Structures are given as C-alpha cells and as structure tokens.
C-alpha cells in the first residue's frame, strides 16, 4: 500500500521549495518541568477551556511573536535515487537549494528549536523575527535525526521566548493552535483539537534509533509549518509541528507534532553536551496484538520481543514474552509511548519497570546503558548489509517456539536496497533461501548478496503467517 507521509516544513512559492529539509529535566513526582538554563517552563496547572469560552486570541498573541521564519541555502544539491523518500514526496530534495520552514524561540538570548529536516545540509541559515522582521544569521548548535529536532542560535538579546507546558498533561480532545509559516505565509495561526497521542507513523525510518510518539492534531498544518509551535490555550508550547499525512502534500486533517517534553529534553542535551544522551535498555519491545491482549486479559502494555545477553534488561531479570505495563509508574499503552518514556532518561539513570509474567506482576529497577555499550551488545546479535539495505538477527528461543521452527533469521531496520525492492517487510523471518535453512545472519547475508538466477525465499511474517517470495536475477 502506498504511503503518503510528507514532512510539513516544506514550503513552495515563486519557485522557493522547502526542504525535507538526571540532571533530570522533568520532575515526574511533581508532574512539572523544572527550570533549565535560559529556557522558561510553566509551573501553572493547565485547565482546558471549553469550546464556548476558548480564547484563541490570547493564545495567538502569546505564541505568534515566538515563532520565526527560517530560510536556508545549500550550495550542494542533495541527489537521491528513486527510493521510499520519493514515494513520500519530500519536496526540496530534488529542487533548488533555497528552502524555508519555521522555528520557535525558546530563550531570550536567541536559542531556537526547529526540525532537523528544516536545516539539514544547509550552508546558510537565516532567521526572520515575527514582530519586527529583523533578519539574523543563525548557527547550528546541534541536531538529532532520531527525533527530527535541531537547535540553532542567533546573536540577539531580550527576545520574546515561548513558555513550555508539560505535554504529559495534554489530553485528547483539548484545543490547540498551530503557529508557523505555511507556503511562506508568515505568522499563520490555525486551531484544532488533539486527535490522539503516542502516534508512530514511521516517517523517520532512515534514522538509526528513530523515536516517534507524536501528538496528532487536526489543526491545519501545511508545508512550511515544520519547526513551528503547537500551543495550548495558555499560549504554552506543547509540541513542535513536524509532519502531515496527506495524499497531496497539503492539509487534509492529520498533522503530527513532537511532544514538548521530548523537545525540552533534547534541547537540554544539545545545550549541555552538544549531542543527545540516549539511554538503552538492552531489549526490544513491540505492540501487543488483540490475540495476546485477550489471552492474557490485559488492557495495556508492550511485549518484550528480545532481550540482549549482558544488557540492562537481562541483568534486571526481564525475559522475552514479558509484558511491560508501566515505566516509572506510567502506563504503557503502546511501543511509541514506551520509547518516549525511555527517551526522557540518560545513560546511567535508573528506570522502574513493572511487568507481567505468567499473570503475576513484578517490578524491577533497570540501569540504562550508553550508546557504545548498546552497540557492542547488539553487534553480537545483529549483522548489517548495506547492499541488502537491512539488519539481520538470529531468532530468540521464544520466537522459534512461537513460529514452531528451529531456525530462521529476522530482517529488521529495512532501508534502501535489495530487500525493499523485493517488498520484504520489516520483521520478516527468512527460514529458507533456495531450500537452504539458515540460523546465522552472516551466512544468509553472504548467500543473498551472491545469489543469481532464481531466488526463492520462504519465511514467516511477524504475526506467524507463512509467505513465499520468488524472484529471478541476472
């Protein structure tokens, strides 16, 4: 099925095409965001106004001056092959080297948050203020492709900065405003409600460790809005507008924003460390299907799909097939929400994990590891192939038992390459290649990369369904 997921930053007018271009930050016990250097956070409890007395004027007046217009220039064309990004229709990657988007002032001294795809590959970044149209040259402080966020700075003082709300308190059905610069129409405000939370739309698949737990809204978001503000009726930031879902590339009712709490954590990491401090659990999880939920009589949770030997999860006693119901006492309704909750932590932080095993509940403390340790552990299990465009992993004992097989190799992190051209789906288990059974990823990769003539791949989908793929190569 063809997907039509388009980053919303991209603006096109008069030939200008937009680009796809703890120190614990949150005090969870109190439920509010604590003060970080140069950035303002709200300590006020937020009560949602009804439709009858919603004050859009007040919220617009507070938020609009904090949203800026960003123009970038790239001296080199970013050439791409006819890949999945073309199918998603990312404007600007094939066109002129001028592009534009939005950003939000988060400090009086000139820090501005935007989307990574707004400033990606830019040789020059200009920021135009809303109130007096002054133009400043900006420098890149840091970027995080995994969340599609970037932090830039201009040399200015006494700017009007936005106040952060606690996006955890945002509820489905609440009024929100989107502020940005769609189609180069600066300082545009649209209104809508929060349609859903914790959405994963798989728009950031080229990132190494993508984190998607979007706020979904029906406030009109169009090309040029990316990097702009999603605010509540107090004019406080609850999210950074990032993507739209549309067959045309323009608004049809589905917009997505990165939660403000995630933005705040990424911003603090970029200011304090220059990059994002990501903590890893040493396990993989997936959403629970209806069959599992019914069998185990549960309403929420994520299923532990794989546990790496010597990783934090294994040391804490977690096993495949455990069902994680809470992280830091917060209910885990989906994999997206689980990944968002973990993203608020740094390596070395302790995370409280509540899980079910055999119908019995238990809680363990898990100490997150750093990227280097995670890489060393996962490399023992995962083998990558640039040519095939995917990672390959041996099956766990639990996965073999579920599928009723004693061999097989799982395909993950599918990017651009032969497997995508074959339409092999994410999570597919290759059991046989030309009637030969495989248990080791390296053996399968070697044979797949060197096979010619008839190719017959037999395997299983993630839900256990059996499938066969047949091809012929020259």
Please tag this protein with its features:
seven-stranded antiparallel β-sheet; Pdz3 Domain; six-stranded antiparallel β-barrel; 11 helices; Thrombin, subunit H; 474 residues; alpha+beta; disordered N terminus
Please explain how this structure is put together:
There is one protein chain. Helix content is 17%, strand content 34%. It folds into three domains: 5-273, Thrombin, subunit H (Beta Barrel), CATH 2.40.10.120; 283-375, Roll (Pdz3 Domain); 383-473, PDZ domain (Pdz3 Domain, Roll). With 474 residues, the chain is α+β, with helices and mostly antiparallel strands. A hairpin with a 2-residue loop joins strand 27 (429-433) and strand 28. The model is unreliable at 1-37, 44-50 and 78-95 (pLDDT under 50). The longest helix is centred in the middle third of the chain and has 14 residues, at 260-273. It contains eleven helices and 30 strands. The chain starts with a strand and ends with a strand. The strands form six sheets. Strands 24, 25, 26, 27, 28, 29 and 30 form a seven-stranded antiparallel β-sheet that branches. Strands 12-13-14-17-16-15 form a six-stranded antiparallel β-barrel.
Low-confidence stretches: 1-37, 44-50, 78-95
Helix content: 10-25%
In CATH, the architecture of the largest domain is Beta Barrel
Count the E strands.
30
- What is the tally of helical segments? 11
Gross morphology: globular
What does the average pLDDT come to? 82
For the report, how would you describe the main beta sheet?
Answer: 7 strands, antiparallel
The fraction of residues in strands falls at 25-35%
CATH level-1 class of the largest domain: Mainly Beta
Task: Round the Cα radius of gyration to an integer and report it.
Answer: 23 Å
Return the domain count: 3
* Quaternary: single chain
Ends distance? 28 Å
* Alpha-beta classification: alpha+beta
As for the CATH topology of the largest domain, it is Thrombin, subunit H
């Amino acid at each position: 099925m063809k997907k039509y997921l388009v980053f919303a930053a991209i603006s096109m007018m008069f030939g200008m095409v937009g680009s796809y271009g703890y120190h614990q930050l949150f005090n969870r016990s109190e439920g509010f965001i604590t003060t970080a250097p140069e950035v303002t956070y709200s300590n006020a409890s937020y009560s949602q106004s009804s439709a009858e007395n919603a004050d859009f004027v007040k919220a617009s007046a507070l938020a609009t001056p904090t949203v800026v217009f960003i123009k970038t220039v790239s001296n080199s064309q970013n050439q791409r092959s006819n890949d999945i990004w073309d199918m998603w229709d990312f404007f600007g990657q094939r066109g002129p080297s001028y592009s534009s988007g939005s950003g939000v002032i988060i400090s009086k001294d000139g820090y501005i948050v935007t989307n990574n795809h707004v400033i990606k590959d830019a040789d020059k970044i200009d920021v135009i203020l809303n109130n007096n149209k002054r133009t400043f040259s900006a420098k890149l402080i840091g970027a995080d492709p995994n969340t599609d966020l970037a932090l830039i700075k201009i040399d200015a003082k006494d700017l009007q900065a936005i106040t952060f709300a606690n996006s955890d308190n945002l509820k489905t059905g609440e009024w929100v405003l989107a502020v940005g610069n769609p189609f180069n129409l600066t300082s545009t405000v649209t209104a809508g409600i929060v349609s859903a939370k914790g959405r994963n739309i798989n728009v950031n698949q080229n990132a190494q460790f993508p984190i998607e737990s979007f706020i979904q809204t029906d406030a009109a978001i169009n090309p040029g809005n990316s990097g702009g503000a999603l605010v509540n009726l107090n004019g406080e930031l609850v999210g950074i507008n990032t993507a739209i879902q549309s067959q045309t590339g323009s608004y049809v009712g589905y917009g997505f924003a990165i939660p403000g709490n995630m933005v705040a954590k990424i911003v603090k990491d970029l200011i304090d460390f220059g990059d994002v401090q990501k903590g890893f659990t040493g396990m993989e999880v997936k959403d629970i299907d209806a069959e599992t939920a019914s069998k185990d009589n549960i309403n929420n949770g994520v299923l532990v799909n794989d546990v790496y030997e010597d990783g934090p999860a294994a040391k804490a006693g977690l096993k495949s097939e455990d069902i994680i119901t809470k992280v830091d006492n917060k209910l885990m309704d989906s994999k997206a929400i689980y990944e968002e909750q973990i993203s608020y932590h740094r390596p070395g932080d302790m995370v409280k994990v509540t899980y079910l095993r055999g119908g019995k509940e238990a809680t363990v403390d898990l100490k997150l590891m750093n990227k280097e340790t995670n890489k060393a552990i996962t490399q023992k299990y995962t083998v990558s192939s640039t040519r095939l465009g995917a990672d390959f992993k041996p099956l766990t004992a639990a996965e073999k038992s579920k599928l009723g097989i004693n061999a097989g190799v799982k395909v993950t992190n599918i990017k651009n390459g032969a497997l995508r051209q074959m339409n092999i789906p994410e999570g597919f288990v290759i059991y046989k290649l030309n009637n030969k059974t495989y248990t080791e990823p390296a053996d399968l990769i070697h044979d797949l990369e060197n096979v010619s003539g008839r190719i017959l791949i037999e395997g299983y989908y993630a839900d256990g369904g059996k499938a066969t793929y047949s091809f012929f190569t020259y």
